[in-house]
UniProtKB/TrEMBL annotation:
Residues 423-450 are annotated as: Disordered. This is eEF1A lysine and N-terminal methyltransferase. It comes from Tricholaema leucomelas. The lineage of its organism: Eukaryota, Metazoa, Chordata, Craniata, Vertebrata. It holds the Pfam family Methyltransf_31. GO terms for biological process: methylation.
């Protein structure tokens, strides 16, 4: 049976609708939503004594259900189709004596002015406003003008709609310019998400007397049962807010059809600021055998630990979901700009929203557990935030790690999921913010000295690999001497500090392009300069080029740990210019013949990575690589002469000898840091 029009224009034709309702018979046709879904919103705006006009009523049961439930009785229903009005009159005449049906065109209504307190439209505006042609818009203007005419001041035009952008924009612009208050409600959908994914909205336009001059627009949006409306500044913001809710509803529906192993992520934003408050990843584990209690769980990632491999990487989240033993796990990351009232507060805030992400077939009244590492939400205290002209916005924060240790981190906010630098704090000075500060206490002064840094501990695995790589330095004895070392990229200064303290005769030069980072390292990470440690604020490219011309064969070891600011390149470390052949030849020039050049390579583009390796091989005859487990990082060890080649066993022996020399009495050494173990996975390229 063909019930659809041949063209959108037929939606305005009485002839089409007569044929439609004759073919459909007495079966009610509901454009959008059943009465139980619409009732909570309608109940707020329809009073028992109101005179209600339903435009384009069709054979919907909405009016009958409003009447039967006692919401109101004085209801006038109009429609352009004579067939459906006759059908509805016969159906309600004896049961609902105070309800009326009339054949009438809502573009030319016969009612006197200010006749009704409520005009209700369920899908009629959507049926008329099928495009933005001039004739269509003129018809909609007539419709709105007639609705405005028959409504009393203080009356409400309630429009049930799918809120297509052009439909919502037209309604909001028209009535807000008339001085009306516009509020948009999202309707709770209790239907089958697999069959119907688009949410339903009700526009509530309240009529006010038009004020001469420019009156402020009042535009608001309410989400489902949310009591307090959210004010927005413009029509564009209102349309964008509705679009976000439509995308979320579509996502929830698509989760039921998500391919095995695929992960979906989304941000839930703070309603006041609009900034992300929670980042959710939905992870399915089809390999987990189904049981009564393992369908669905929520995992709250402790603050500050979202960058760890287990929580921050796709493979890590898969492992977490499998080990947790749930077929669907939603991981929740907390944002540093937001305040949270503990696990119970987060659970209360998220419970309703995350249930929309539940897998199909979740048993009714199934208790969904909220999990976390250690059972709490962690500790994060932002110690300093600023903006650098070169590095952009950044923060220095103290976080609680796995166990009792605290760490200080430098984060560039343009890449907030990557820890730029990290140092362990000495246990004698726990970070500010560990306990909730009373409101009557003053915040710590920005000039307050930082907590003590544990300079003996290297947090970053790639830094450990670089230190271990110093056993490649030429000669039969790898024991430290008066080596000259160059580190390009300061960050928090952990790597040059460790080398300075443990290679007690070495001279370390550090090149850092951003003077703000020198200030951060000095103030917050315990970095200091001296006779054997000098920082040059310069572009690493310029510094190396100048040195190549003036002082060749100058350094025993050169280390590059430089991030790229260009996020469009598939290589986040180093910037592409640092691995171009002419520049690498200059690096080789300032390196001693028995020296070693180390490069922290972070490259997700396989072709680009292979190109970088090929260029390095052209310049350096001997190339080793050490992949950092669980990370994209790979440390490349490059030597200018092929004569210094060592096999894995020899490297292990040299690493043990170097470690023995570094582990001196009275000098702290982390027992988990074994140089030979670090180099076990090294390979020759």
């Amino acid at each position: 049976m063909d019930l659809l029009p041949r063209s959108p224009g037929e939606f305005g034709s009485a002839r089409y609708w007569d044929r439609f309702f004759r073919q459909r018979g007495k079966r009610p046709f509901e454009w959008y939503g059943a009465f139980p879904e619409l009732c909570p919103v309608l109940h707020k705006y329809v009073r028992p004594r109101d005179k209600v006009l339903v435009v384009g009523c069709g054979n919907s049961e909405l009016s009958e259900q409003m009447y039967d439930m006692g919401m109101c009785e004085d209801i006038m229903n109009i429609d352009i189709s004579d067939a459906v009005i006759h059908q509805m009159q016969e159906q309600s005449r004896s049961k609902r004596p105070k309800m009326s049906y009339l054949v009438m065109d809502m573009l030319q209504m016969d009612f006197p002015d200010a006749q009704f307190q409520v005009v209700l439209d369920k899908g009629t505006l959507d049926a008329i406003l099928t495009d933005e042609e001039e004739a269509t818009l003129a018809k909609v203007d007539k419709m709105f003008a007639e609705i405005s005419r028959v409504l009393q001041v203080g009356g409400r035009y309630l429009c049930v709609s799918l809120a297509q952008a052009h439909v919502l924009k037209k309604a909001v612009e028209y009535f807000s310019q008339e001085g009306w208050v516009v509020r948009v409600h999202q309707v709770a959908n209790s239907g089958d998400k697999q069959q119907f994914v688009l949410p339903i909205f009700i526009y509530v336009m309240t009529k006010f007397r038009k004020i001469l001059g420019s009156a402020p627009q009042i535009l608001e949006i309410c989400q489902e049962e949310q009591e307090k409306p959210m004010r927005v500044e413009s029509t564009e913001q209102l349309v964008a807010a509705v679009k976000d809710r439509q995308h979320y509803a579509l996502l929830c529906s698509q989760l039921s059809k998500m391919p095995c192993g695929e992960q979906v992520s989304l941000d839930l934003c703070d309603r006041e600021s609009g900034r992300p408050r929670y980042t959710l990843h939905v992870v399915d584990s089809p390999s987990v055998k189904p049981s009564r209690d393992n369908h669905f769980a929520i995992f709250i990632i402790p603050q500050g630990r979202e960058t760890e491999w287990l929580f921050g990487m796709e493979e890590g989240r898969k492992q977490l979901a499998t080990s947790a033993g749930f077929r669907r796990l939603v991981t929740v990351a907390l944002h540093r700009e937001q305040h949270y009232e503990g696990m119970a507060g987060i659970q209360a805030e998220l419970s309703a929203k995350v249930m929309e992400l539940a897998p199909p077939g979740l048993p009714a009244r199934q208790q969904v557990p909220f999990l976390s590492a250690g059972g709490d939400i962690g500790v994060r205290a932002v110690r300093h935030c600023d903006t650098s002209p070169l590095s952009g916005e950044y923060v220095v924060e103290d976080v609680k790690g796995d166990g009792t240790c605290y760490f200080r981190r430098l984060i560039f906010l343009h890449n907030r999921n990557v820890v730029q630098s990290e140092a362990r704090l000495l246990p004698s000075m726990p970070p500010q913010g560990q306990k909730k500060r009373r409101k009557d206490k003053k915040k710590p002064s920005p000039a307050e000295p930082p907590a003590a840094i544990d300079k003996s501990y290297l947090c970053c695995e790639h830094h450990k690999a670089m230190v271990a790589g110093l056993c490649l330095l030429g000669g039969p004895n790898p024991l430290p001497g008066d080596e000259a070392m160059l580190v390009v990229g300061l960050g928090g200064g952990s790597l040059p500090l460790f080398i300075h303290d443990y290679f007690s005769q070495a001279h370390v030069a550090v090149v850092e392009i951003d003077p703000s980072m020198l200030e951060v390292a000095t103030r917050w990470f315990g970095f200091s300069q001296g006779d054997r440690m000098q920082v040059h604020v310069s572009d690493g490219l310029d510094y190396v080029a100048k040195l190549a011309a003036e002082a060749p064969a100058h350094y025993d070891a050169i280390m590059f740990d430089v991030d790229s600011k260009d996020l469009m390149v598939g290589m986040s470390c180093p910037p592409p210019a640092f691995v171009e052949k002419p520049f690498l030849q200059k690096v080789k020039t300032i390196l001693k013949p028995e020296g070693v050049f180390m490069l922290n390579l972070v490259c997700r583009d396989a072709r680009l990575k292979e190109s970088v390796l090929a260029t390095l091989r052209e310049v350096f005859p001997l190339l080793y690589a050490r992949r950092i487990e669980g990370e994209v990082n790979e440390i490349l060890f490059c030597q200018p002469s092929p004569e210094g080649r060592w096999d894995t066993t020899e490297l292990g022996t040299r690493a043990q000898a170097l470690e023995g020399a570094l582990r001196q009495p009275g000098r702290p050494w982390d027992s988990s840091y074994m140089l030979a173990d670090v180099l076990q996975a090294i390979r020759i390229l």
